[in-house]
Amino acid sequence: MNDRKAEVAVGAIHTDGSSTTTAASDLPPPHPRGTASDHLLPTWTVPGQVDQNTVAQPRDGQGQVVEGRRLEIDDKDEDGPDSERHANAYPAWLERVETKLKIRPVPVQPLPKLERPLFSTGSQALTGLLRHVPRKFRWCSRWLYVAVWVIVGGLLITFNNYKATTVEGTPTYIGCTEQLWSWRVENCGLNGTYCSPFANQSFVIRCPTECLAVRNQNRRWLGSTQQGLLTSWVVGSGSYRADSWLCPSAIHAGVVSEHWGGCAAIDVIGAADSFSGSSANGIDSMNFDSWFPKSYRIRSVESKYCTDFSWGILPVAVLFIALFPLLWPSRGAFVFALVTSGFWYGVFIAIPVHGESWTSGAFGNYFVTLAFTYYLYKLFIKPAMLSPGRFPIETFFLTIVPFYFALHMEILTAPMSNFGLTSRAFREPTTLITFAIGVPIVVGVCCVQLWLFRRHGLLLKYLLCYGLAIIVYFVLPLLIGLSMHLHHYTLGIILLPLTRLQNRASLLAQGFLIGLVVQGISRWGAASPFDTAFQNQAGDENVSIPRPEFAISPTALATNGTVTWQYGPDSGASIPAGLPYDAFSLVLNDMEVYRGPTPVFDIAQVQTDPLKTRPYYVRVALVASGSALEYSYPVTITPGGNVTYQNGTVASIDMPNPS
Fold it and tell me: Ranges for the LCCL domain (predicted)?
């Protein structure tokens, strides 16, 4: 075989069943431009015309059978694996071990290879379209198509994401979880200084599509109860608490569409005494029965180009990649185009996150994605992938459709909580049911694939590789004190090797898993498969961190508004010497009102209820290196002298303090 090229004698097959061949010396040289696919496009037999066993015939530019021509095949881009090279590459010692363990079949079956398209007539019509382009212009047609693809995509992204205007100015394109008040205490600072102004401010925002698919992944304290898991965080109706997500609040107010996004004007109106929840436009907003220093209202605004046409761009994106195989790209070029178009579709269209920092970070993630997919392609994707030019219909249904399905995992998995290999995965019924159904299905499919690998003499090789990977993944974090985190793109990388056999089930799974890898990295970056203990909490309660305890005197509370606490029941009020804690942090209604070493605070400094009947919710935490640690459970107090602890114990000026 010279220059990795093999010459195959191809004869003409006539309608009467006879055939003719020509000696090699009588054949003309290959065409000087490109490979055989540029001038000898294969076609498939149409029933009733030629022999049913004929797979492909060389034809000239007018579609006539060329008698006595040789079809030049580039073996590095053939359909399916090269079984001879594979057999020679398989280590002999593995063969001996497999034979001794009786898991190597005799004889070993050759690797499967799809020879004919599922829809031969349709495939024949599609693959012959390039013949209508003059031979000398075919290279130009490919580059012209890519140029049109890039220009159309750029225009759609520009008008969909960056051309919005309103009569009140250019809107800020925000994500679905943007807030005016941060949940992290340090971000707003003492008395909310860094989250000002508290009133007399108006601005315009633009919201993306499908913000209802973005859910809060942790319960949060709101008043005396934990709320908001797997829902949009919206507190109030008409007037919204400042930590409510802006875009879901705009949907709740009826100003922005759930499926088409839109623009809205935000008016910051200052403090509010309470917030009433309601159900509207698919969102159940929550109640809060106390004061908060900042709130806002939402109103409609006259605008242009604010509608989010992401769902309209999806069929355009799919159409461009679906037509690309008609230009007969190599499998490598097709995978590059698929991954590139899918990545930027995810960044600008499919993922409801926007902003300059998001876009700039995406370029770094893009090159990481290319590196991942390049090695996955060389090792696992290429041996199973069909030639896009010969199998355009299968390529569309078995690769492109599941690929784009996986790109929308953000929406598909919205009802489930975020998970790693932690207790979080089994905390909520929806996620638990998904695991209970999904895991047996995945395991069953993997077992079927491994059984097929055994037929082809690959079982032991895969078992050894997977066994080593499992040992490393489970043992390594134990040795270095980390926790495991199974990202969904990691799951795609783990399962892709099982799609190495060329059959339609493998191709369907392969398209989905490639999309899973691209979506995961484009959305979250190439995150580590291991987490620190702090990262593994991800908003969960950390029971190992000490928390101060309230010791409030109802009489002192009613007399001068004094709230007191102590480091621990056995260690007195102050922080014991030698511990790595700097101070106490006290939050009242989720706003930090005090930070210092003294365990006492006068709520008269912030309370605005002259009747002293409104409830307030206080929590206290230790501060280390400038950051507040875990806050205690909330205690409900009224300036009139009533104290209600989380365990239900009540103390008032008419009864002794239980602590």
Answer: 234-286
Short-list 407, 411, 343, CA closest to 176: 411
Nearest to 236 by CA among 283, 180, 189: 283
Q: Please tell me the pTM assigned to this model.
A: 0.75
CATH 1.10.3430 is held by the domain 549-651: no
In sequence order, what E strands does 485-631 have? 530-531, 549-550, 562-566, 583-588, 591-596, 600-602, 616-624, 627-628
Beta bridge partners of 644: 636, 650
**Does residue 405 contact residue 515 with C-beta atoms inside 8 Å?**
yes
- Give percent above pLDDT 70 in the chain: 77
Q: What's the pLDDT at 653?
A: 61
**H or E, element range at 221:** strand 220-222
- CA gap 328, 326 in Å, rounded: 5
Amino acid at 259: H
Return d(Cα 40, Cα 34) in angstroms, integer. 11
Q: Round to whole Å and give the CA distance between 45 and 55.
A: 6
Distance in angstroms (rounded) separating the CA atoms of residues 382 and 385: 5
User: What's domain 166-304's architecture?
Assistant: Beta Complex (2.170)
Question: Per-residue pLDDT tens for 387-406?
Answer: 998 999 999 999 999 999 99
Are the C-beta atoms of 202 and 168 separated by less than 8 Å?
A: yes
Q: Which amino acid is at 74?
A: D
- Each domain of the chain, given as residue ranges in start order, spans 1-77, 166-304, 313-535, 549-651
Helix, strand, coil percent content, the chain, rounded in steps of 5: 40, 20, 40
